[in-house]
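Why this split exists: single-chain examples teach little about how molecules sit against one another. For that reason, every record in the complexes split bundles all components of an assembly together and asks for one structure covering all of them. Below is a record exactly as it appears in the raw files.
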Amino acid sequence: MKVIYADNAATTKMSDAAIQTMLSMMQESWGNPSSLYGHGQAAKEVLEKVREGIAFAIHADPREILFTSGGSEADNQAILSAAYLGRRNGKMHIISSAFEHHAVLHTLEKLEKEGFEVTLLDVHENGIVIPSEVEEAIREDTCLVTIMTANNEIGTIQPIREIGKICREKKVLFHTDAVQAVGHIPIDVEEDNIDLLSASAHKFHGPKGVGFLYARRSVRLTNLIEGGAQERGKRAGTENVPGIASMGTALQEAMAKMGENSAHLTVMRDRLIKGLKEIPHSALNGDAEKRLPGNVNFCFEGIEGESLLLLLDDKGIQASSGSACTSGSLDPSHVLLAIGRVHDVAHGSLRLTIGEDITEEEIDYMIASVKEVVEYLRSFSPVWRDLVSGKTPFIL
Ligand SMILES: *Cc1c(COP(=O)(O)O)cnc(C)c1O
């Protein structure tokens, strides 16, 4: 059976070129970049080339790029740095949104325990933060605004340029978790007035366990890891050279093919949305237009997302319900709750994040399969029976 991988928001398959880079680094450039002899310097050179490439991709200066172990570490370091800088000036208020990734939300919870105050903005029914609400929330003691570029569950793209402009005017630092965006949609830290940005290689066909943090030169970073003087003294530990090199290759490819990929994905995404909308008592989660080219997220009333996933897997379709981090717990996704879905409806969610090589036939197969499985699950669902008999009212 052919497998359709439709969970690219969880992770992506490494590209062949990214794998080749990784292998050749392990075989040939295996030196420690801090060593002064040939092998070390060759590795060091690769690191600096990648740093330049990444800086070019997001319109930053290479000195503003710090390699990390991934998106979570970058989020933690960005937020803690801005918070502790603020605290030195007596500013201990942070603004974020209700549907950020847990790497952001849990870091904010930690800061609350340290005495910081956090305002979580509403993301409304369409899953988008309103810039004027950011402006209204900014106070004298606000030190940081952290709003993601694109949401990992419902794919909605935030007005980060407008938010960045407001933050710049109000002299408040702006961090964005761009893990779902880098390599998929254009980002320009200058035009968008971004001070801190997080990214992760495994979300753009690079390897897991490697990412980067962009930090404007004026922002003094706090170390999460103490030790040697790697990464300008801001992130100790011998660099993951094969991973970093491979990330560089993956990002270069993603940037080169961005226009083409996004055009194809948008057509495929909209075909999938159109098909799934035909299922009665279903609803698309998040804005239909301001969303990542590959993201489709639906709620189907009267079913359990987990059962839907298992049956789709039997049909060769690998998808997700909520985020990988929350599956295993029975709580519905905080993202779906944030856009106002009630518990019962949020439980029947399905996220399909398609890859660049998806075909029209595969999309049609997915539509037919989801239709069939939803119908089957509803045929013996007591919740559905109550809805149909009018015992409980339909919500969707
Ligand atoms: C995947 C993801 C992260 C975490 O990145 P890791 O590299 O897996 O630590 C953070 N934020 C968002 C939006 C993500 O999608």
